[in-house]
Design goal:
By secondary structure, the protein is mainly beta. It has 2 domains: about 1-110, no CATH class; about 120-250, no CATH class. The chain is about 10% helix and about 40% strand. It has helices at about 1-10, 85, 170-175, 235-240, 245-250; strands at about 10-25, 30-35, 45-55, 75-85, 105-110, 120-135, 140-145, 155-160, 165, 185-200, 205-210, 220-225, 230-235. The strands form 3 sheets. Strands 6, 7, 9, 10, 11 and 13 form a 6-stranded antiparallel sheet that branches. Strands 1, 2, 3, 4 and 5 form a 5-stranded antiparallel sheet that branches. Strands 8-12 form a two-stranded antiparallel ribbon. Strand 6 (about 120-135) and strand 7 (about 140-145) form a beta hairpin. It is globular and about 50 Å long.
Length: about 250
């Protein structure tokens, strides 16, 4: 039917929140993005490379898109809008794009909600434990940002298509077997588990992995100048609930 065909055409693309473009030609696009886990173990959610037909990438009007589409030039970082078939792509080692099973196909012309709405919550952390691996390595390690292996000041940006930067102490660089003389390292996180209390109610404590898309937004910025300073998280309602904050209290 013409109407059904029009609906599929208008609702055939979902957003990969952030990719890094590796290369493009007349027929194909290669990009890096967070991969999905096969077993459910978050440590499998690594930065992987995918190649899709260029015809599976949305290239129409952009006025209805929540984020501008990434430039298809090597090194560009941004949102990519893929068709259903494009979302089915696998990396060379057999992994799919992270959240492939939760992708909501609504662009360019459907009004359905894309993802869970996120809100901000300011937390007094007692632990920020990062699991993952150093750039260029594969051994999974962990770093406690509020412990002696991490520098007191951190400025971490996460969006899912590039390593984060961690500032280590000399002790931390030794523990992670950092080969460079620098104590600032690039690190691919597979989990960032934050434990602490909401500022609005320090009497309760919760924990959330901000790389879990059911609990947190796809982009996070953790910045502090000393251990224990408040940090602001982008969380879904389930993530807010993990810190035992009721909606009425959070709205105050």
């Amino acid at each position: 039917m013409e109407g059904a065909g029009t609906f599929v055409e208008l609702c055939d693309h979902a957003m990969v929140p952030q990719v890094t473009i590796r290369g493009a030609d007349r027929d194909t696009l290669t990009f890096a993005a967070r991969g999905a886990s096969k077993s459910g173990n978050p440590d499998e959610a690594l930065l992987r490379t995918f190649t899709v037909a260029l015809s599976e990438v949305y290239s129409g009007p952009t006025d209805q898109l929540p984020e501008p589409p990434v430039s298809l030039t090597p090194g560009a970082v941004g949102a990519l809008y893929l068709s259903r078939q494009g979302w089915g792509v696998h990396s060379a080692d057999g992994f799919q794009i992270f959240d492939f099973d939760r992708a909501v196909f609504k662009w360019p012309g459907c009004a359905a909600m894309d993802e869970a709405i996120c809100t901000t919550l300011t937390v007094l952390p007692v632990s920020i434990l990062i699991h993952g691996h150093l750039e260029g390595e594969s051994v999974i390690r962990h770093v406690e940002l509020l412990g002696p292996d991490a520098a007191a000041a951190q400025d971490i940006h996460w969006a899912g298509a590039a390593c984060i930067e961690l500032r280590l102490t000399d002790r931390g660089a030794r523990h992670l077997h950092v080969k460079s003389p620098s104590t600032t390292v690039k690190f691919w996180p597979t989990r960032i588990k934050i434990e602490g209390s909401p500022v609005i109610d320090p009497s309760v404590r919760g924990e959330v992995d901000i790389l879990n898309s059911e609990l947190a937004g796809c982009a996070q910025h953790l910045e502090f100048t000393k251990h224990g300073e408040p940090i602001t998280l982008s969380l879904t309602q389930d993530g807010v609930n993990a810190f035992h904050v009721i909606p009425q209290r959070h709205a105050q």
